[in-house]
Sequence to fold (643 residues):
Amino acid sequence: MNYFIQLVVSGIVLGSIYALVALGFVLIYKATRVINFAQGELLMAGAYIAFALMVQLHLPFWSALLVTILLSALLGLIIEMLILKPLIGEPIISIVMITIGLSIVLKAVVEMIWGTETRVYPAIFSAHPIVLGTISVSKSYLFSLGAAITLFVIFHFFFKFSSTGTAMRAVADDQQAAQSMGINIKKVFAISWMVAALVAGIGGVLIGNINGINVSLGMFGLKVFPAVILGGLDSIPGAIIGGITIGVLESLSGGYLDPLVGGGVKTVAPFVILLVILLIKPYGLFGTEKIEKV
Amino acid sequence: MAIKCGIFKTSYRSDMAIWQTKNSRFWIALFFVSLAIFPFFASKYFLYMANIIAVGVIAAVGLNILTGFAGQISLGHGAFIGVGAYFAGYLTSQFNINFIPAFIAGGLVTAIVGMLFGLPSLRLKGFYLAIATMAAQFILAFMFIHLRSITGGSQGMIVSPPEIAGFSFDSDFSYYFLSTGTAIVMTLAAKNLIRGKFGRAFMAIRDNYIAAKTMGVNIFLYKIIAFGISSFYAGIAGALWAHYIQIITPEHFTISVSIEYLAIIIIGGLGNILGTIFGTIFIVALPELLRFVNGIVSAHYPMFVNLFDAIREGSFGLAIIGFLIFEPDGLAARWKTIKNYWKLWPFSY
Fold:
């Protein structure tokens, strides 16, 4: 039982980072209908930017986090302007491939600058875990979970009450109607990419605190697909619930099934679940159903 | 002398012809002759490259039938190639089955696996289908590593070179004829398939599936057929490749291979068989060219040696982005422009 709870807790923490990446993904998809295969690489970029600031420039953690957020948003803006803008209106395969190309380039750039070996952040939290009853949770886990929850609350209010958030929701709902109401769609597209990159960057810093970073961090971007498909492609609560569910399932299948077949179940389990969801409920738990009939 | 300013077709038959004019027939014949005499002059390195390109062309043509003509995105092509490689390798190495039946069986079994993973296309389109095929990719890759009794796990499976009628294709030189011959047959078959009933149905589904259905195209059937044909090509390519390399390991069938094949058909030109050949040559030659340049540069700046992997990856990604932004119709479109320019030269305005 103890083992089970321990697995669930680490699954929730991992899942909250999936949820952050999924949140960025859903934001971009909702507003611009672009499927971003490079979301994981944005997370990786954020993680390395923070690494450079903290280790190579010796900034303290909080100011490094702030600068990372700004630089990540800038990166998102540049990507949108250079790469996505020329492709507005192109078929879906072009958009899928260009974000795949982008992910390859981002990974290569990081590899050129920082190499392939795993880098570790300076310890910010003490290594002593917090003991809750019979289970122990490390402080960096709690910090990640807390940060993720805070971000979700901020985004909830941002979309509900701020004028930018409302504009983004309007564009997601109907681009033409939004434009005729005087909303600057280009600005909304740019903001969506900035916010998505920023959220991914924060996710990168959180994962860096837990595990240390290397270029395979981009794999997070692929893990996000089961999460968003489960939650529904265009639903923000769906992204959060989907992310956490996939994290827990991955952790449990890794804990119980990996010893039986000799590893690897962890990476494949989310995709088996994904196929099942696609077959029985393709638009996920909270996604908008699009019914087309001949 | 009259200047030719276009090709005039007076019958449907001539419009659908594979070799359109006497001129193109001449150039294609010349191309085949040069393919036939190439190995007698080429070095071992170029023979190796030619073999890799031939196998790549087979797999890429298969993917182009599915993605370029039928409009179904597949991120699982790499794994399908693996299925063909492992199945054919298993038959020849464990049961001593002759190469030709094993080779065809590899293609057929892959076709069945492909159709199975194509089933979600009944309900899914576009991005959803891409993700479903990506799931297929991860599930198959997991099986390659963990079905140790069949695949040999991460140590791999060792197969011997193919033997047909007592002749062993065990050198780059002899394999060239096997791989290029198969590639030519498969490419012509694809070209023929595309101009027939199947090709028309595929393109109708790609362009407007509601209209296609109204015209009486059985969408589901043709989507599954497209998956089947495409996977058959992948399986044949896998079987050929496995018996050439002679050791099959799971890392050759990862998602990056699937992405590479998608890149080939994007760079070559979606829905263009000739473009597929250009795309394959481009993607195979690009890292080799970079290796050559890197060799020169690193003689002066030794630090470039360590950066080579990243440079190779990065330029691969840049090539995808560049083509999508500046030449979305790929090398095939560029080829056509150049051809048209020379056809009317010097009055090409």
Remarks:
- The domain at 44-343 of chain B is CATH 1.10.3470 (ABC transporter involved in vitamin B12 uptake, BtuC).
- Chain B has 15 helices and four strands.
- The beta strands of chain B are 157-158, 163-164, 167-168, 247-248.
